[in-house]
Design brief:
With 839 residues, the protein is an alpha+beta fold. It is built from 16 helices and 44 strands. The strands form 13 sheets. A five-stranded antiparallel sheet has the order 29-33-31-32-30. Helix 10 packs antiparallel against helix 15. The termini are far apart.
Length: 839
């Protein structure tokens, strides 16, 4: 029997037979088509692309989704991986296709390497579509999605996705780190929801919980203050009988942002800096790398002040050199040589430290002992003992098995850590106590004699230099000072090539010996502690001459490292202005970094204005003088000092108050020098304090003197209102103090911003003038903002001559009111100014 085939059906069948592989550019994969080789899917607007990729130098291939149009990174930024644990070796012989209604990846032998595993019935109308939000959707015709990648994230949480828990199926979305930069297989770190506590947790090995977000409080997770930046992100948390989940979006669609769990064990909110062609870490948790559990593995040391931050203890080496070279440290370290057969005299101990927060993991077993020497002896006598700890008169012995099981992270000694003593060969100790033979001893005596003569000569020269320099420091009384190589090294830190040869001759503030610091602070006693900041604690000290000082001890966990420390020493030593804090000296010892300032008895400005009791000490006249003083200090930095300096971290907590309430700008750790008459620059990493950052700096890494102007505007509004910019305002009708103030301005009720504590003391004209200036400083376009010279002049100008402020940056995209976007001058002049009555 002969069947007649219609010509149209014949041509269609012929097309499918000869061209089954999809050509690049389509956003849809249909039945009987497949992806292979270099073919890709591209979303409709070109935002995302999907296909085979190979990470770095890896020989393996994976199916993944990456940014295409708006993020031009090289290599591409991967946001999702299908077969992360089952790679293929050849992309041209592998196929991604729809089989029986499922999306399936087949290798060269047609073995199934990955599948959506949702349905098992044939569906001729099944389609796979890559959407412009990065979501890959499998559906049958126009029905709801059968499967979507947003429900199965890998290491990236994109805007519009969900991260939650399904009460009906008891399944949750989890994002898991890559194993290394070149291996997208599941790593040890994961972020998931704790459905019972309504918070998110980061886990190590899906078992040890080492970070929590805190519960949802109605607008943010309590331990993630960065979420107060909701003028950029729209956060939503849903909880009902069916599901619990968190999602987010961006008010400005031009901003490219993603949340990832990095191979480092941190969750990072990143934004794409188009000007720098790179990703910027907008915020991260845990804040410091050494807080990540087991980040350096067993017998590894973690220090924030060095790169790489993980190193092996003396006598140990990386378990895998290849992993360490790719930034994968959690495999830890192993001994170079066994010590179990060595004689006791050839053994010793090196001390490292373990965070107190991990104490609960090893409190179960231990032997009560009177003193540590007995504990040490127990470990020496036990050949299986690799380490011992002695805390609260409890001796605990450790072997490789339980150390590996716990995977301790060792950190430098501080108040939040306890010692752990590691058994090593005596040759690995800092100084070898082994006995020297006679020849070595004689050679040592001879060489020591000549060395002593040489050192005496050097010492004589050094003494003369110190004596000459010491004449400039007579005001220090009998205090013992020492200028050493660290003072010479510091001067080269800040932007090499910008400082002139004259500037680099030396630092004009003295170097203090560490033992002197201990003496003036009484060994950093709690009685002398003034406060605690993100950088570390501050202590009060008393120099021998009776001068009070503030001693800032940088914490190894602060994120402010050696660069920021030296930056501050060089910069502040060269600045002299009544509204800038004066640096008295500095000290460095091992990883200790210490700055000595003039003592400010009234501490910081934020301590007063945000406290409902202390704020009564600052009437309007004092607050206006503080605003004027800050403005003059910034003007000096931007225009009048020898170096043009951008502070980059101006905020109320960085404004200190002396005994007469005069403001002094402090903390120059993040400050930048710009050359000559230049007023702007760019950076690949945005650092500073959220809530005070200008939009061009926070989102694009561009900073300028106008960035400081923006921060000044925020500070002015905070001083006037007694409210924080990142606070909670007016029943959620405003996302920040900025948007709240702008709403009042549009409503022509600007005086409602005023702190009620100022009701009786305020000068209404000055209040209105300061509000207008504050709004001018926080305008979105940097070109619209005044310079600090303009600000100082405007603070003494009639309000009639002030320009109209334009809409500020970071105002909610949902307008608070339906009034025009700005008030005209005539409207400003028609405002009725009266003496405020107490409310």
């Amino acid at each position: 029997m002969i069947f007649m085939i219609p010509s149209e059906l014949f041509l269609c069948s012929l097309f499918i037979f000869f061209i089954p592989c999809l050509s690049s550019g389509a956003d849809t994969l249909a039945v009987n088509h497949y992806l292979s080789g270099d073919a890709t899917l591209v979303s409709l607007a070109g935002n995302f692309e999907m296909g085979f990729f190979r990470p770095g130098e890896s020989p393996n291939y994976y199916i993944g989704i990456w940014y295409k149009k708006k993020v031009t990174s090289n290599p591409p930024t991967i946001v999702w991986v299908a077969n992360r644990n089952t790679p293929v070796s050849d992309r041209f012989s592998s196929k991604l296709k729809i089989i029986d209604g499922n999306l399936v990846l087949l290798d060269k032998s047609n073995s199934q390497m990955w599948s959506t595993n949702m349905i098992s019935t044939p569906s001729s109308s099944a389609l796979v579509v890559l959407h412009d939000d990065g979501n890959l959707v499998l559906r049958s015709g126009s029905s709801p999605p059968i499967w979507q990648s947003f429900d199965h994230p890998t290491h990236t949480f994109l805007p519009g996705g969900k991260l939650g828990y399904d009460n009906r199926t008891s399944k949750k979305q989890v994002i898991t780190s890559w194993r290394s930069r070149e291996d997208p297989a599941e790593g040890p770190f994961s972020l998931e929801i704790d459905e019972n506590e309504l918070q998110y947790v980061i886990k190590w090995n899906k078992s040890v919980q080492y970070w929590t977000s805190g519960p949802w409080n109605g607008r943010i997770f309590s331990k993630v203050p960065e979420m107060n930046l909701n003028y950029i992100y729209n956060f939503s948390f849903f909880s009902n009988e069916n599901e619990i989940y968190f999602t987010y979006s961006l008010y400005d669609p031009s901003i490219i942002s993603r949340l990832i769990i990095d191979v480092s064990g941190q969750i990072q909110q990143q934004t794409w800096l188009e000007s720098q062609k790179q990703w910027n870490i907008f915020w991260s948790q845990p804040r410091t790398q050494c807080e990540v559990y087991a980040i350096c593995g067993s017998f590894g040391t973690c220090r924030e002040t060095q790169l790489p931050f993980c190193n092996c203890l003396p006598g140990f080496k990386p378990r895998s050199e290849s992993d360490w070279s790719h930034g994968n440290f959690f495999g830890g370290c192993v001994r170079k040589l066994s010590i179990h057969n060595k004689l006791e005299e050839n053994l010793g101990f090196i001390t490292s430290y373990v965070p107190v927060r991990l104490l609960s993991l090893f409190l179960e077993n231990g032997t009560p002992l009177v003193d540590e020497p007995r504990c040490r002896r127990s470990c020496l006598d036990d050949h299986s003992c690799d380490a011992y700890s002695f805390t609260s008169k409890i001796c605990r012995l450790w072997n490789s098995e339980n150390l590996n099981k716990i995977s301790l992270v060792f950190v430098s000694d501080d108040a939040n850590s306890v010692p752990l003593n590691i058994k090593v060969s005596s040759s690995d100790l800092p100084t070898n106590p082994a006995k020297l033979n006679t020849k070595v001893l004689v050679a040592g005596i001879v060489s020591g004699f000549f060395g002593l003569v040489f050192l005496c000569s050097i010492g004589l020269i050094f003494y003369k230099k110190v004596k000459r320099r010491g004449s400039r420091d007579e005001n220090q009384g009998n205090l013992e000072l020492q200028f050493d190589d660290s003072a010479t090294n510091v001067r080269y830190l800040v932007d090499p090539g910008i400082l002139s040869a004259e500037d680099r001759k030396g630092i004009v503030v003295p170097f203090f010996e560490f033992k002197t610091i201990l003496s003036v602070t009484q060994n950093f006693s709690l009685a002398n502690k003034l406060g605690q900041g993100g950088f570390g604690p501050v202590y009060k000290g008393m120099l021998p001459g009776g001068t009070e000082i503030a001693v800032k001890r940088l914490s190894s966990q602060s994120g402010q490292g050696l660069k920021e420390f030296k930056n501050e020493v060089v910069l502040i030593a060269k600045l002299q202005h009544r509204n800038l804090v004066r640096l008295v000296g500095y000290s460095m010892k091992d990883h200790e970094m210490i700055l000595l300032y003039e003592y400010m008895p009234n501490k910081s400005l934020d301590r007063f204005i945000f406290d409902r009791t202390l704020c009564m000490c600052l009437d309007w006249a004092i607050r206006f003088d503080i605003i004027m003083g800050i403005a003059r200090g910034l003007l000096y930095l931007h225009q009048d000092s020898r170096l043009r300096i951008i502070h980059r971290d101006l905020k109320t907590s960085n404004v200190l108050l002396d005994e007469e309430m005069n403001p002094k700008i402090s903390d120059f750790g993040l400050a930048k020098i710009v050359k000559g008459r230049e007023t702007e620059a760019s950076t690949g990493r945005v650092i500073g304090t959220y809530g005070y950052m200008s939009p061009e700096y926070a989102l694009d890494g561009l900073f300028s003197v106008k960035s400081d102007v923006f921060s000044f505007g925020v500070v002015v509004l905070e001083i006037m209102s007694g409210k924080r910019n990142t606070g909670y305002y007016h029943n959620q009708q405003a996302f920040s103090l900025i948007s709240y103030a702008w709403g009042l301005w549009k409503d022509k009720t600007p005086l409602d911003l005023l702190d009620p504590a100022l009701a009786e003391s305020c000068n209404s004209i000055e209040v209105l003038r300061c509000m207008i200036i504050g709004l001018l400083c926080i305008q979105e376009d940097p070109q619209d903002r005044p310079t600090m010279m303009d600000v100082v002049l405007m603070l003494g100008t009639d309000i009639e001559s002030l320009p109209d402020p334009k809409e500020p940056a970071f105002v909610s995209k949902t307008r608070l009111h339906s009034l025009p976007s700005s008030s005209s001058k005539s409207e400003i002049n028609q405002l009725t100014i009266t003496d405020l009555e107490g409310r």
